[in-house]
Amino acid sequence: MKVISKITFLLIAFSIAFASCKKDDEGSGTTDPPPNPASANYFAATIGGINVSYEAGTNNITSFTDASLNLATLPDTSTASYGASLGSYDAASGEITPVFEIKKGTLRFAPAPNPENAIFKDFFGVGIHPFSPFAESGFEVEWYDSSGVLWSTSLGTALQTGSFLEIETITEIEQYNNYYIRTKISFSCKLYDDAGNSKQLTDGKFLGEFENL
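^ that's the sequence the OP posted. Answer follows.
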């Protein structure tokens, strides 16, 4: 089985610029422009009683997508999980410090470099979806606080009793041979750090793309 991790960056300075870099374990890559959404990608929520928000294109915030694929050969089935993120871009170093990521897994599909677009679209169907530790069979949410501490639905006890996540709308975007599902997601959940401390996240809103990498 061949394991591949891919990531696509959307770099934003004063205006939107983009470098899409798809990397696999053989070192191949392509560079393409991004989708041109009507409004910027963003995440907003109340976390531990404090309002938090990030919007791509403001305060050096950029958005990016990623995927982790386990490619099989017949008669086995390939699997994949997908992420959509926001991060702080440092133009001087070229580094991105993540601030938020939402992931969904696990998509199973017939052996191929990636699933058919119709299968990928159905994976992000409108409606209620479960949380799942490390996105094994549902969604995972990660947030980094101002000190760089990771808070995740997968850490600590990972209990999500009373939590919910709903994909409210999806929009297909096809551009430069890339295929995206632009999602509007609302959610509430409990986040944990490595020590098992917890914070309640309420009124979560995310607008952004997942890419069929």
